[in-house]
Every structure is written in structure tokens, then in C-alpha cells.
Amino acid sequence: MKEMWRKLFLPIALMALLSACDSSSPYTIGDEVVVHLNAQGNVAWVTKGNKNYTIDVSNHPLAKIDQLSVDILAPNDLNQANYPTGWLFPDELPAFTIYDLAPAGGDSLTVTIIYPSAYPAGAGYYKAAANGFSPYTPAVISGNTVFLPLTDGGSGDSDAVNGQITDPGGPAVCKSIGWAVGDPADGYGTILKTSDGGMNWVRQGEAATVPDTILDGVAVLDEDTVWVVGEFSGGCPTILRSEDGGQTWVRQGEYDNLPQSGLLDIYALDREEAWAVGDEGTIIHTNNGGTSWHVQGAGQVPEAPYQGVFALDKNRIWVTGGPDPEDGVIVHSQNGGATWEEYDFQGGLHVYCFVPRLLQSGVGWVSGHDRVVYHTTDFGQTWEAYQHIDLPAGTDLNNVIAINDTTAWVAADMGIIFYTRDGNKTWHMQRPTCAAGFYLMGVDAIDTSTIWMVGATSSGPSDAGVIIHTQNAGAQWVRQHTPTNVRYWDIAFAR
Q: What average pLDDT score do residues 85-99 get?
């Protein structure tokens, strides 16, 4: 690190001497970074491992980059003061010094840097000076390109020398670990994992451990503990658990005499306690991490398909579904599932109910069929139905995430997204082009600005599924690249 900072503050005279060298031979820094020069001896591009970076200062007629100052810095090797907690630098931080600027200072230019990775909307740019990290808001990030306005002795310049600009920094994304699940491909169900907020999704599992069936639900407790559920396969419902971040998957429930039906959703309260629901009135529960699963609600709840489950604690659980699109069911237990009661809609609108989400305050939402979302402020004792009449009849609101008492996001058919920020008083609709043609089926969020949704088409395999993401509360949605072309049904992130 000390060597790097010495390189960043080379005297102007030495940099001028270096610029006089007319060589197109690459210049190697350390064991990994290679600086490639053009025929005039100026920096053309930089490589580190299998990653390529282009740093362009042609916006200024005289500016050059000192080849000895160029480096690609690992964030952990820098002063950690004010490090952006919860953020990740996928391409590390390029560092370089620009020279041949006006000796009196004050020169400005825009540096164009092309990175190996494409960055989503909401990514931030951070400078890394000797005193630590700081956000640099003048930077403009567009995909894999950053436009960096700099001024000698002013904005973006971390040295104290006129005639040169020293610039270590780089774009960062939310460091979020999550999983998405979907249809089978190549002989086993699809499980994808990301460790960088979805910039990169990697498939997990193999045919020997993951059944060749549709995976419908995922519950993420932390960076290590994940449950996945799916269709009936191999004589029992599909229940998979990983305790090592998805490196290995273990099937559960094979010897528990469970109903012969598929599972559509799972909610994990902690490492030991979880509930899963599915077809034919299936509600199952474990209190030992899935070592054994037991049926709940038999004879107490309607034998309807259940599509959603949520638990506030070990006692209070909600399950939603319905026997047909125009007949919704919400059942609730206040004693850990020992007994269940069905909510009485009392003649009100009671369409099929998809997914429940509640908060410790008692506020919650349930997404439903035919443009309906239900809202409660009293732990589900009463539910108010809100119907989005501006949508075509029959449109399903497939999933909902409650972020706080006032904010919720809904994933719907036809690439439609709804959100409220005033506790259900008003709803706003978004139709991002990246979701056009998809039925959005799953949603998760880690805060009010950072949201993911997954979806599926009904038209065929040419473009079967999608994962979309926003880091700025829906101001812009971007589609994330996935390694499998399948329909995706659920998504969840570690908190």
C-alpha cells in the first residue's frame, strides 16, 4: 500500500520523463496488473487477471496517464475509514495519475473508464484517498462505463500538486446475498445464488442432490442457511436445505409420511423453525431444522391449495390460498400451528389469496387474484380489500413484500409492479420495459430502495424467465443476467 501511494505522488518532472519513452510494450505492476501502451507510449488499457479496463483522458487535449501510477487496488488494502458498509466493489478500484495539465492548476476534464462489469441503476462511485472512502456523486455510471469529471486541485483530485490529478476510486454495488428458484434444466431444478446483489448469478446444486422438478419457494435465513421447496417428486414433496451457503443441498422429509402433494411456499423463522404449504390443504412444520416435518391443520383448514405462509414468531402464523380464483382463504394460528382458524370475510371481496406479509406492528398485506391486495393494521383480525380497477379484470397480484408500516411492493401479471408509500392510501403502478411480457411471481427487498423481482412467461422457452432489480426505489429497473433460461418463481435475500 505504501508503495502504491508513493507511485501516485510522483513528481511532475519524473512523469514528464516517463512520457517521453515511446514504447508499446506492456508495463507490469506487481504480479497481476499489466498496463498496455499504445505506439506513442501512452496508456491504452489495463488488465488484472482476466479483467480489462480502459481509461480514456482524450477529453483533454494534453492530458496523459502516468503508466507507473496505474494500479487496480483491492478495497481491503486501503484505509478502511468510512468504508461503505454493505457495499461491494466487483471490479476493485483503478488508481492512476493524470499529468501534463496546466501548471497553475484548475484544469478540468472528464475521464471515461470502461469496466469489466455492467453496473445497475443505483450503483455508487466512491473515491479512496489516504484518509479513507467517500462517495463521489459527480460520477455518472452507465452500464460498464463511468464518466468521471475531475478538476486539478478541486473536485475529485486527492493530491496537493498542481498540474496533475490523482484518482483512485471505483463503482460499488449493494453487497447482497440471495437465491432464486425456478423450473428444472439439464435434469434438475434451478437454484441460483448471487453474492453481489445480482450482478452475477451462479447456478447451484446438481442432478444427484436436486430433483428434476419445479422449485417454487425459497426461504433465506442468513448467508449460510437456505430452504427450498417444490413439486412432488420421488414419492414426497421437495424440501431442500443448505447450511453452507448452497455449496451442498440435503433433501428433507423423505421419511416423514408427508402428504403426496407439491409445496408452493416456505417461511423460516430461524434455523430450527419453519413452515411450508402447498396443494390439497398441505401445511407442514419443523422445529428441528428439518430433521423431521409434521403435518398441521388436518381437519381444521379447507383442503385448498395454499400458496403463501408467513410467521411473526413461534406462535403466530398465517397461511393463504383458496379453492378457486373467486374464493380466497386466510387461515391463522396463534399457538404455533396446534390449532387453526379461518378468517371470515363477512361477505366482502374474498378472491384467491397468494402471499401474506406482516410486520411486528400488526400492519400487513396479502396479494390476491383479480387486482386485489388486502391490508391489515391489527395482525389480521380485519382485512381491507383494495382493488386496482385500472387493470384488466383477472390480473393477479402474485406476491408482496412489506418493508415497513407504510411501504409495500407487489409483483403482478403482465410485468406490472405496484407500490405504496403511505400505508395503503394510494398505490402507484410501474411497467418497466425489462419486465414486459413476464408474469412477475416473486419479490424481495432489503430496504425501501433495493428490490428484486422474478418472473415467468407462458409463451414458451425462448425467453422463459427474468430477474429484475432496482437500487433506487423503482426509478429505474434493470434486468439481471442469469445462467439458465427457465421460469423463475421465487427470490429471497439474506438480511
A: 91
Q: What does pLDDT average to over the chain?
A: 89
Report whether pLDDT(19) > 70.
Answer: no
The total number of residues written for the chain in this structure: 495
Interatomic CA distance for residues 256 and 67, integer angstroms? 66
Classify each residue of 418-455 as buried b or exposed e, where b means 16 or more C-beta atoms within 10 Å of its C-beta.
bbbbeebeebeeeebeebeebbbbbbbbbeeebbbbbb
**pLDDT beyond 80 at 182:** yes
Domains and CATH numbers, the chain: 2-173 (no CATH), 178-493 (2.130.10.10)
Task: Measure the CA–CA gap between 172 and 368, rounded to whole angstroms.
Answer: 37
Residues 480/493, Cβ–Cβ less than 8 Å: no
Q: Cα separations (Å) of 206 from 146, 187, 247, 323, 492?
A: 38, 8, 10, 35, 20
Cα dihedral value 250, 251, 256, 260, nearest 10: 170
Calculate the CA dihedral of residues 463, 119, 228, 418 and round it to 10 degrees. -70
pLDDT of residue 3: 33
Residue 24 has a pLDDT of: 53
Q: Which three cell numbers stand for residue 417?
A: 409492479
Q: Which stretches does DSSP call E strand in 282-382?
A: 282-286, 294-295, 306-311, 317-324, 327-333, 341-342, 353-358, 364-368, 372-376
- What is the torsional sign of CA 181, 185, 189, 190? negative
User: What pTM was estimated for this model as a whole?
Assistant: 0.80
C-alpha grid cell, residue 207: 442432478
What is the phi/psi pair of residue 341, to 5°? -130, 145
Look-up of cell digits 447451484: 204
Residue 68 falls in which region: left (phi positive, over 0), alpha (psi -120 to 50) or beta? alpha
Grid coordinates representing 220 are 433465506
